[in-house]
Design brief:
Pfam families: GerE (PF00196), Response_reg (PF00072). With about 220 residues, the protein is of the alpha/beta class. The chain contains 10 helices and 5 strands. It folds into 2 domains: about 120 residues, Response regulator (Rossmann fold), CATH 3.40.50.2300; about 70 residues, Arc Repressor Mutant, subunit A. Strand 4, helix 4 and strand 5 form a beta-alpha-beta unit. The termini are far apart.
Length: about 220
């Protein structure tokens, strides 16, 4: 039997913290190795326990979730620790900052229990965390922004990689992209993996950000 996924939960709201911790502890394949209520406490805890996954709140006293995420990802001892941001749609600007800091994705605080557990398992499997519906929400945020971010330099992509990236930025799932391009879903997954490598991303949302920052999507 595989070792349970070791999780640290970070949130300054007592009820949210207790609820997530109880849910994760009740899953047979997960264990909560610590809880923290602010960023500096979270850093000390993560460095001491080296969990597989951190569920990280954004707005917290002393040290916010963005900076805590950046410091975790900058620590070579924590290279295997994955950070998932906990947020609401009203905190989108913080979410983008945290994703750029190295988080693998985000969950809403009203995420159904079964979806939260599934998301932790997906992240542990090295797959994309974001569902097409959440990706589309990110697209909407970019589209509604009053001014686009400065264009970033895009590495050289093949025509097919460019096609796949543009469709990812539209919020399409791998199955939808496969149907649109008339290729197999496994082939799409390969292209997505190549794009993540070329663009230095760790989750599907990073491809959305890259597409908008480069001007490929608008």
């Amino acid at each position: 039997m595989n070792e349970p996924v070791r999780v640290v939960v970070v949130d300054d709201q007592e009820l949210v913290l207790a609820g997530f911790a109880a849910l994760l502890s009740g899953a047979p394949d997960m264990t909560v190795v610590g809880q923290a209520r602010q960023g500096e406490e979270a850093l000390r805890l993560v460095r001491a326990t080296r969990p597989d996954v951190v569920l990280m709140d954004v707005r917290m006293p002393v040290l916010d979730g963005i900076e805590a995420t950046r410091r975790i990802r900058a620590d070579p001892r924590l290279s295997d620790t994955r950070v998932i941001i906990l947020t609401t749609f009203g905190l989108d600007e913080y979410v983008f900052g945290a994703l750029r800091a190295g988080a693998v994705g985000f969950l809403l605080k009203d995420t159904p229990p079964e979806e939260l557990l599934r998301s932790v398992r997906v992240v542990m499997a090295g797959e994309s965390l974001l569902s097409p519906s959440i990706t589309r929400r990110l697209v909407e945020v970019f589209a509604a922004a009053p001014a686009p971010a400065p264009a970033r330099t895009m590495p050289e992509l093949t025509d097919r990689e460019t096609d796949v990236l543009a469709l990812v930025a539209q919020g399409l799932s791998n199955a939808d992209i496969a149907a649109r391009l008339q290729i197999g879903p496994a082939t799409v997954k390969t292209y997505v993996s190549r794009l993540l490598t070329k663009l230095g991303g760790t989750a599907r949302v990073h491809l959305v950000i890259a597409a908008y920052e480069s001007g490929l999507a608008s």
